[in-house]
């Protein structure tokens, strides 16, 4: 039988983890053959709640769980970890401005990056879900100089899935027949959900939709502001859909993106499409065996170029702000 894969999850007592952990032990991360050792990180006051979550994991009697380790010390939680899912983060509190938020999260993601650098397995893969996810990824990666930068990715898959869902609703075509959507840039309102290269039921998506007004004025804002709409409706931020996307992102990175399609991931820019090097940026990628390739040669409309420029500008401002704070 296979050796267990060590999967670290931070924010283990939080809402997303409460869906994510049970997906992992049901085989939705690495398949139904690969056992996992869960290494759960929480802050000290949440350790009791984390123990309750671990009791429920026990009570699922999943044959995939080889062991559960719980800690409030990232040096312990990430020790030997092959996969790190960084979910726990500091939400924006009352009266906090953007700089306060970046500083509070820097205080989490800088030491976690260092702990990954010093203690994780040589083959570690890291996915940041906790917001502001793109810039938290940049911070963690900066503090892990011995780990190749390509090992750090951020969650844009929820935005990718939201794009597909809206297109399916508009056209009536099942989600499984919608391919090659992309979401460029930041996991924020400035993101650019792009269907220029997509197909819907085998037809070019722009033809299948045939409603340019809807694309610009309804579709893009609906996808980009979906997180806020869910908070408004549910009184809490999206949790299960975020957990689902987190598991899918890492599943596809490790086991491969679907043939004839691609996935959106926040990756370290290599300068492709004029995105400044080093920004963590949503891009369409194909994936296999823990490696990704940014899809090359895609065309942008003038509208698309302006959208791309706006989300680049926002991420550069975030990078400048965390640089100012001494975090990168
Ligand atoms: P939550 O507040 O329910 O859970 C977060 C957990 O993280 C809490 O239990 C907290 O104690 C823990 N935590 C805080 N600091 C920690 C640290 N230093 N080490 C370990 N654990 C720590 O939040 P929820 O709903 O689970 O969301 C988690 C994050 O995911 C938030 O930042 C949220 O904004 C983000 N998110 C990202 C999405 C994306 O698409 N990228 C989508 C939805 C949410």
From TrEMBL:
UniProt superkingdom: Bacteria
Example GO BP: malate metabolic process
Transmembrane parts of this sequence: none
Catalytic machinery residues: 187
InterPro entries to which the protein is assigned, alphabetical: L-lactate/malate_DH, Lactate/malate_DH_C, Lactate/malate_DH_N, Lactate_DH/Glyco_Ohase_4_C, Malate_DH_type2, NAD(P)-bd_dom_sf
Molecular function in Gene Ontology: L-malate dehydrogenase (NAD+) activity
Catalysed reaction, written as an equation: (S)-malate + NAD(+) = oxaloacetate + NADH + H(+)
Binding site for substrate: 92, 98, 131, 162
Keywords carried by this UniProt record: NAD, Oxidoreductase, Tricarboxylic acid cycle
Enzyme Commission number(s): 1.1.1.37
Ranges where the Lactate/malate dehydrogenase C-terminal domain occurs: 157-320
Keyword Oxidoreductase: yes
Family label: Belongs to the LDH/MDH superfamily. MDH type 2 family.
Role this protein plays: Catalyzes the reversible oxidation of malate to oxaloacetate.
UniProt protein name: Malate dehydrogenase
Organism the protein comes from: Raineyella fluvialis
Phylogenetic classification of the source organism: Bacteria, Bacillati, Actinomycetota, Actinomycetes, Propionibacteriales
């Amino acid at each position: 039988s296979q050796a267990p894969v060590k999967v670290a999850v931070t924010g283990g007592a939080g809402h997303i983890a409460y869906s994510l952990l049970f997906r992992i032990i049901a085989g939705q991360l690495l398949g139904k053959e690969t056992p996992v050792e869960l290494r759960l990180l929480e802050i000290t006051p949440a350790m009791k709640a984390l123990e309750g979550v671990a009791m429920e994991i026990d009570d699922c009697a999943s044959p995939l769980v080889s062991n559960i380790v719980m800690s409030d010390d990232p040096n312990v939680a990430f020790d030997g970890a092959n996969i790190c899912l960084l979910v726990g983060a500091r939400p924006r509190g009352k009266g906090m401005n953007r700089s306060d938020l970046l500083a509070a999260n820097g205080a989490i993601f800088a030491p976690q990056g260092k702990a990954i650098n010093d203690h994780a397995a040589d083959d570690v893969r890291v996915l940041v879900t906790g917001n502001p996810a793109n810039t938290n990824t940049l911070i963690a990666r900066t503090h892990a100089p011995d780990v190749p930068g390509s090992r750090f990715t951020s969650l844009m898959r929820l935005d990718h899935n939201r794009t597909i869902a809206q297109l399916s609703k508009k056209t009536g075509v099942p989600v499984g027949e919608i391919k090659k959507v992309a979401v460029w840039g930041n996991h924020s309102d400035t993101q650019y959900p792009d269907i220029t290269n997509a197909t819907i039921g085998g037809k070019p998506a722009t033809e299948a939709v045939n409603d340019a007004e809807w694309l610009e004025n309804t579709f893009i804002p609906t996808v980009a502001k979906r997180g806020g709409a869910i908070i408004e409706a549910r009184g809490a931020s999206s949790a299960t859909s975020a957990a689902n996307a987190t598991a899918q992102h890492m599943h596809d990175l490790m086991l491969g993106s679907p043939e004839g399609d691609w996935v959106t991931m926040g990756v370290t820019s290599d300068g492709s499409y004029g995105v400044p090097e080093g920004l963590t940026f949503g891009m369409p990628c194909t994936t296999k065996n823990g490696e990704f390739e940014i899809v090359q040669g895609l065309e942008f409309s003038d509208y698309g170029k302006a959208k791309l420029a706006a989300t680049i500008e926002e991420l550069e401002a975030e990078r400048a702000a965390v640089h100012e704070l001494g975090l990168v």
